[in-house]
């Protein structure tokens, strides 16, 4: 690997995911055509939160990011069977919340709103 | 004459089918095991005689001692000696046909234990046959085979030895012996075959009976849920959906039982620890249903989404393959009084968040609809370019359709989380009441559906003679289930028992309200009773109106209810546990309020 000072160091997908996740209070990795991602976005908008959305299908390195997300979510390595739709994946305050089911569970048991407030995404 | 008796006995033996019939007749009437008990000592006595006779007759026919010992050994494979008295289980020697060894001694011995009657003879022979057959049934099949083998050997030996011994004084007897041995063997074979056939037939009958009972049960369950039979979409999906339907029916039964347990536990004022266990159990049971639905969603999501597995009334409220959590919370909140301030806040925020989640999922689903519609219309609908559409676009559409599964699963997840959160917010007793309320609500919806399905459809437009005269009462019945169907022409409608029952339930509930209201108002210190001693006016007409309407409905249903000689109405009611107290008090209240004799039976 060239140790050039000017060229950007090629970061691993996981590192990139983590970097993107910590850039905003609420980060959603989605696919533009996915309806469940649309649902998650509507959920946050309904609560008055404006998440940062990264559309993986519009990203040149989207595939890698998707695989990294799958690994973060705990789906096994390449040996595992075909992973169902990984997206949407939600990070709040740089920490992984999870896929849609985790987000909904968090919202229902009342832990989502405090999390959002803590991250500074909600002020009420 | 000995010969005649022998011939008759022979003829009996020569006809194996007749013998077989004798078998069947014997077996059909009483189990073989009973035979021993019934016949008892007399039987054994006869058997012992037969033994002795056989032994002596055998000794007569075979001259060599070796043959006889071998013979004895062969004929008595079960460990009893030839001279031993029969034990509780007399050896099933095939050769104890009293007709054979006793034919020479039978007729002369008129005064012996064994009667000379041919009927008795046949009876004892058939008894022995049945004994032999019963033992055959008890023993393994290979025993029978062994037996036959053994007896075959024995026969061969006898024949062999008989042929070897050319002693003339016994030739007549040996020839007879040969013949009878052969005939006996044939009889045995025929009897064995018929027994095996009969066994197979019985097994077949039993299995088909079981299958029929199972099918009837399944059909009844399906019918009671108002499902459409025979609407299976396709070969690969129908098995998954059929299995889900069966499992769901089982879950419903289980659920009913648990609700009854919960109700009993609640009213028995059990300590909180026990109640907690039952409530947790109920929650787990609900989780099981969500599991079932998840599996079914993978097999056929449309089955869940279109709500074929629910009853019509439930289907009307269906949201993404199940109940809408915020609706349920809205219904439950007033039922759960008293609640602490904190609990109220908790439930309200739960309601709000579930509403937001539902909104989000609904919008996601709408997005899916739009996307799918675009795909299906994709390109041009005008061209005859179906082939190109079939190729790429269809695959795309299929992919989009697969997302439905995710939505149903998320909706179920939402329902599950809502129930768990409710469980967390409420105290144990409140949670118990909450689950009971949910169960009761859905029960009522299901009852409504069955009423709807069974409502009489005899409408005649011209000249409808309305059974309920006043329009005022009619308007009051409009709120009742099936209220509008009171407008009928002359002949009485045929109601199903479920209709009658649910009407009587409502009737009794209202009756109780009425009676209690009167009683409490009379007793209460702050009674708002007016001069005439009646209920407050705004309270009274509504309840009385409904009572009258319900009573009229029951009266018009009289045609389908049996009426006793005294002219009272008998209403059969299953035990509705939540109405036990109600009905008891209502029964006491009825003659006072309405002056009509009603007899109510509990199942």
TrEMBL record, chain A:
<keyword id="KW-0813">Transport</keyword>
<dbReference type="InterPro" id="IPR002109">
    <property type="entry name" value="Glutaredoxin"/>
</dbReference>
<dbReference type="InterPro" id="IPR036249">
    <property type="entry name" value="Thioredoxin-like_sf"/>
</dbReference>
<comment type="function">
    <text>Has a glutathione-disulfide oxidoreductase activity in the presence of NADPH and glutathione reductase. Reduces low molecular weight disulfides and proteins.</text>
</comment>
<comment type="similarity">
    <text>Belongs to the glutaredoxin family. CC-type subfamily.</text>
</comment>
<dbReference type="InterPro" id="IPR011905">
    <property type="entry name" value="GlrX-like_pln_2"/>
</dbReference>
<dbReference type="GO" id="GO:0005737">
    <property type="term" value="C:cytoplasm"/>
</dbReference>
<protein>
    <submittedName>
        <fullName>Glutaredoxin-C3</fullName>
    </submittedName>
</protein>
<feature type="domain" description="Glutaredoxin">
    <location>
        <begin position="26"/>
        <end position="97"/>
    </location>
</feature>
<keyword id="KW-0676">Redox-active center</keyword>
<dbReference type="Pfam" id="PF00462">
    <property type="entry name" value="Glutaredoxin"/>
</dbReference>
<keyword id="KW-0963">Cytoplasm</keyword>
<keyword id="KW-0249">Electron transport</keyword>
TrEMBL record, chain B:
<dbReference type="InterPro" id="IPR004827">
    <property type="entry name" value="bZIP"/>
</dbReference>
<feature type="compositionally biased region" description="Low complexity">
    <location>
        <begin position="76"/>
        <end position="87"/>
    </location>
</feature>
<comment type="similarity">
    <text>Belongs to the bZIP family.</text>
</comment>
<feature type="compositionally biased region" description="Low complexity">
    <location>
        <begin position="146"/>
        <end position="157"/>
    </location>
</feature>
<dbReference type="GO" id="GO:0043565">
    <property type="term" value="F:sequence-specific DNA binding"/>
</dbReference>
<protein>
    <submittedName>
        <fullName>TGACG-sequence-specific DNA-binding protein TGA-2.1</fullName>
    </submittedName>
</protein>
<dbReference type="Pfam" id="PF00170">
    <property type="entry name" value="bZIP_1"/>
</dbReference>
<keyword id="KW-0175">Coiled coil</keyword>
<keyword id="KW-0804">Transcription</keyword>
<keyword id="KW-0539">Nucleus</keyword>
<dbReference type="GO" id="GO:0003700">
    <property type="term" value="F:DNA-binding transcription factor activity"/>
</dbReference>
<keyword id="KW-0805">Transcription regulation</keyword>
<feature type="coiled-coil region">
    <location>
        <begin position="198"/>
        <end position="225"/>
    </location>
</feature>
<feature type="domain" description="DOG1">
    <location>
        <begin position="241"/>
        <end position="455"/>
    </location>
</feature>
<keyword id="KW-0238">DNA-binding</keyword>
<feature type="region of interest" description="Disordered">
    <location>
        <begin position="62"/>
        <end position="179"/>
    </location>
</feature>
<dbReference type="GO" id="GO:0006351">
    <property type="term" value="P:DNA-templated transcription"/>
</dbReference>
<dbReference type="Pfam" id="PF14144">
    <property type="entry name" value="DOG1"/>
</dbReference>
<dbReference type="InterPro" id="IPR025422">
    <property type="entry name" value="TGA_domain"/>
</dbReference>
<feature type="compositionally biased region" description="Low complexity">
    <location>
        <begin position="125"/>
        <end position="134"/>
    </location>
</feature>
<dbReference type="GO" id="GO:0005634">
    <property type="term" value="C:nucleus"/>
</dbReference>
<dbReference type="InterPro" id="IPR046347">
    <property type="entry name" value="bZIP_sf"/>
</dbReference>
């Amino acid at each position: 690997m060239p140790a050039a000072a000017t060229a950007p160091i090629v970061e691993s997908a996981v590192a990139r995911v983590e970097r993107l996740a910590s850039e905003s209070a609420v980060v959603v990795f989605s696919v533009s055509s996915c309806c469940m991602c649309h649902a998650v976005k509507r959920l946050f908008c309904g609560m008055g939160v404006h998440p940062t959305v990264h559309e993986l299908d519009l990203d040149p390195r989207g595939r890698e990011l998707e695989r990294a997300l799958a690994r973060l979510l705990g789906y096994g390595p390449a040996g595992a069977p075909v992973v169902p739709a990984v997206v949407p994946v939600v990070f709040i305050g740089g920490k992984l919340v999870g896929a849609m089911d985790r987000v909904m569970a968090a919202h229902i048991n009342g832990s989502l709103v405090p999390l959002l407030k803590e991250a500074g995404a909600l002020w009420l | 004459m000995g010969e005649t008796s022998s011939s008759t006995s022979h003829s009996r033996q020569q006809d194996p089918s007749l013998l077989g019939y004798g078998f069947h007749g014997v077996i059909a009437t009483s189990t073989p095991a009973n035979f021993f008990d019934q016949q008892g000592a007399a039987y054994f006595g006869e058997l012992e005689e037969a033994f002795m006779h056989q032994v002596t007759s055998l000794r007569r026919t075979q001259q060599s001692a070796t043959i006889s010992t071998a013979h004895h050994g062969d004929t008595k494979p079960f460990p009893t000696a030839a001279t031993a008295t029969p034990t509780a289980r007399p050896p099933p020697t095939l050769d104890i046909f009293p007709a054979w060894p006793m034919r020479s001694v039978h007729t002369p011995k008129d005064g012996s234990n064994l009667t000379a009657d041919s009927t008795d003879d046949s009876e004892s022979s058939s008894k022995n046959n049945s004994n032999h057959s019963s033992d055959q049934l008890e023993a393994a099949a290979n025993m029978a085979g062994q037996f036959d083998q053994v007896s075959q050997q024995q026969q061969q030996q006898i024949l062999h030895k008989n042929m070897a011994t050319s002693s003339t004084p016994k030739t007549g007897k040996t020839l007879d012996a040969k013949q009878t041995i052969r005939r006996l063997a044939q009889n045995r074979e025929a009897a064995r075959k018929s027994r095996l056939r009969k066994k197979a037939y019985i097994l077949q009958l039993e299995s088909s009976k079981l299958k029929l009972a199972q099918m009837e049960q399944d059909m009844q369950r399906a019918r009671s849920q108002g499902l459409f039979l025979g609407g299976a979409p396709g070969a690969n999906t129908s098995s998954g959906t059929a299995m889900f339907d069966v499992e769901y029916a089982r879950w419903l039964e289980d659920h009913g039982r648990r609700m009854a347990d919960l109700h009993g536990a609640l009213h028995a004022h059990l300590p909180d620890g026990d109640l907690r266990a039952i409530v947790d159990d109920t929650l787990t049971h609900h989780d099981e249903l969500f599991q079932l639905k998840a599996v079914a969603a993978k097999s056929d999501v449309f089955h869940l989404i279109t709500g074929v597995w629910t009853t019509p009334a439930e289907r009307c409220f269906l949201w993404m393959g199940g109940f809408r959590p915020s609706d349920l919370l809205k219904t439950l909140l007033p039922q759960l009084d008293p609640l602490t301030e904190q609990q109220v806040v908790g439930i309200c925020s739960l309601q709000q968040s579930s509403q937001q989640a539902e909104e989000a999922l609904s919008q996601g689903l709408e997005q899916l609809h739009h996307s799918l519609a675009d795909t299906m219309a994709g390109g041009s609908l005008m061209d005859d370019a179906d082939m190109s559409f079939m190729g790429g676009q269809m695959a795309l559409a299929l992919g989009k359709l697969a997302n439905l599964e995710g939505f149903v699963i998320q909706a179920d997840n939402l329902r599950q989380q809502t129930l768990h959160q409710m469980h967390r917010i409420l105290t144990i007793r409140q949670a118990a009441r909450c689950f009971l309320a949910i169960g009761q609500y859905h029960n009522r919806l299901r009852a409504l559906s069955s009423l709807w399905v069974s409502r009489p459809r005899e409408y005649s437009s011209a000249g409808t003679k309305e059974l309920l005269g006043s329009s005022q009462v009619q308007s009051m019945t409009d709120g009742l289930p099936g209220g509008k169907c009171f407008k009928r022409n002359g002949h009485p409608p045929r109601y199903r028992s479920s209709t009658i029952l649910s009407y009587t339930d409502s009737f009794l509930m209202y009756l109780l309200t009425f009676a209690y209201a009167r009683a409490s108002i009379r007793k209460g210190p702050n009674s708002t009773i007016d001069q005439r001693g009646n209920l407050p006016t705004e309270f009274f007409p509504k309840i009385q109106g409904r009572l009258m309407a319900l009573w009229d409905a029951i009266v018009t249903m009289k045609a389908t209810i049996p009426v006793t000689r005294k002219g009272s109405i008998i209403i059969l009611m299953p035990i509705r546990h939540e109405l036990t107290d109600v009905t008891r008090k209502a029964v006491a209240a009825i003659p006072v309020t309405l002056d009509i004799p009603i007899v109510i039976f509990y199942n």
